Amino acid sequence: MTRMLIIGPPGSGKGTQAERISERLGVVAISTGDIFRANVKGETPLGIEAKKYMDAGDFVPDSVTNNMVRDRLSEEDVERGFLLDGYPRTTAQVEYLDQILAADDEKLDVVLQLTADDEELVARLLGRAKETGRSDDNEAVIRHRLDLYHEQTEAVVAKYAERGILTQVDGIGAIDEVTERVLKAIEARQTV
Ligand code: AMP
């Protein structure tokens, strides 16, 4: 049973790594970005609301995001643990997640941060924009998303560091190499 978070700047490969880690650990990967994108595609009310923010590279408001995460974490497949990807991104979301978990007498085991240099990330994301046509992958929006990461999400990372559950992994390198680093880092945590 593992309850963990993966945090990283846009373009750090956290979605790819989250899927691999979740497979290895046998826990479900939950990506708030993926849930939003599925809702945008399905033109649901949630998707229509979220799209305005996503296209500008802004955070979707907590009032929307927190409820969505609470509902997702109440589903049955989460009972064996989870790997949350892309949430929490603000300190207010950290507090909300604390409350969700505390209500069930649960807590996080490990928080994994993927690190990478901004210019490397911009280059990667511009490459991804060509391949996938994601509407939030143009340079101005990419830089705005990186700024938000530094301004808001690094404070989230600091909170988990204070709690002693943070582990950092260099996200630059081949996908397999990074997966190996991540799995080693998680194993090291779990035997401590
Ligand atoms: P991602 O795929 O994780 O990069 O997320 C894509 C976009 O979804 C972000 O740029 C935000 O607009 C939105 N989003 C995802 N997770 C969150 C969150 N925890 N809080 C607010 N907005 C989010």
Descriptive account of the structure:
By secondary structure, the protein is α/β, with parallel strands linked by helices. The radius of gyration is 16 Å and the shape is globular. Helix 2 packs across helix 3 (45-56). It has helices at 14-25, 32-41, 45-56, 62-73, 91-103, 118-132, 139-162, 175-191; strands at residues 2-7, 28-31, 81-85, 110-115, 166-170. Strands 2-3-1-4-5 form a five-stranded parallel β-sheet, with helices on both faces. The structure holds adenosine monophosphate. Adenosine monophosphate binds next to helix 2 and helix 3.
The CATH architecture term is 3-Layer(aba) Sandwich
Instruction: Tell me the total number of β-strands.
Output: 5
Cα end-to-end separation: 15 Å
**From the helix content, strand content and strand pairing, which structural class follows?**
alpha/beta
Question: How many structural domains in the coordinates?
Answer: 1
Distinct ligand kinds: adenosine monophosphate
Helix content: 55-70%
The quaternary structure here is single chain
Net shape: globular
As laid out across the biggest beta sheet, the strand order is 2-3-1-4-5
**Alpha-carbon Rg, integer:** 16 Å
Q: In terms of per-residue confidence, which ranges show pLDDT below 50 for 5 or more consecutive residues?
A: none
Q: Do you know the CATH topology?
A: Rossmann fold
What pattern of helices and strands is seen along the backbone?
EHEHHHEHEHHEH
Can you say what the CATH homologous superfamily is? P-loop containing nucleotide triphosphate hydrolases
